[in-house]
UniProtKB/TrEMBL annotation:
One of its GO terms (molecular function) is DNA binding. It comes from Streptomyces virginiae. This is DNA-binding response regulator. Residues 2-113 form the Response regulatory domain. It comes from the Bacteria. The modification 4-aspartylphosphate is found at D49. Residues 127-222 bind DNA.
Length: 224
């Protein structure tokens, strides 16, 4: 796999590049946001530091997500909850805070890639669209429309919504959703799932589209 490594610290970039190469990945390292935007289309996954010299990393993340749908993991020293929430809402598939264990980061990369591949395989060409009121979720086309207008969700937001829409009558536990979408049921105590659900509600403008079952999980809501 070809990785785009966006990191302005030379020592960190060297360590990450070496670890990735040892696992058979090819790596292009860039230190500036403009270079990242120029090379993003060749990448199969992205590691993104947020502390860049020419543009705030969150803004770069938003711009990357307009042109790039590959797995993307933020690797940064920013550890405040606000930063983590912003990163996930902007489209990061995972958020890793420095300092970190290299083996853990490599495992997270593998998990994100597996889940991305699995969701692509499950989106069969004949999969039927699901409607709730004026909202339509099309798993095959990976699109969501509200009153006929397409709404842009991040890949992870879409995966959550499509998973709920695949079995709309069922209530899904947090652990089940995290295991299927994130590949790690032990993330149940984190806010990552809640952040993505909030993003779905805000972007569609339909707060009832995802129903919270307090103390348990979520279900597809809205009018049939």
């Amino acid at each position: 796999m070809h990785a785009l490594l966006v990191e302005d610290d030379d020592r960190m970039a060297q360590a990450l590049g070496t670890a990735l190469a040892q696992r058979g990945h090819t790596v292009r390292r860039v230190a500036r946001a403009q270079d990242a935007l120029r090379h993003t289309r060749e990448a199969e996954f992205v590691l993104l530091d947020l502390g860049l010299p020419d543009l705030d990393g969150i803004e770069l993340l938003r711009r990357l997500r307009t042109v790039c749908g590959v797995p993307l993991i933020v690797v940064t020293a920013r550890c405040e909850e606000r930063d983590i929430v912003q990163g996930l809402r902007a489209g990061a598939d995972d958020y890793v805070v420095k300092p970190f264990r290299m083996a853990e980061l490599m495992a997270r990369i593998d998990t994100v890639r597996r889940r991305t591949d699995a969701h692509a395989d499950r989106a069969a060409p004949g999969a039927a669209a699901v409607r709730r009121g004026d909202v339509e979720v099309d798993p095959a086309g990976r699109t969501v429309t509200v009153a006929g207008v397409e709404v842009r969700l991040t890949r992870r937001e879409f995966d959550v919504l499509a998973f709920l829409a695949a079995r709309p009558e069922e209530v899904h536990s947090r652990e089940e959703i995290l295991d299927r979408i994130w590949g790690d049921a032990f993330l149940a105590a984190s806010r990552s799932l809640d952040v993505h659900v909030a993003g779905i509600r805000a972007k569609t403008g339909r707060s009832a589209l995802v129903r919270t079952v307090r103390g348990y999980g979520y279900q597809l809501g809205g009018e049939r």
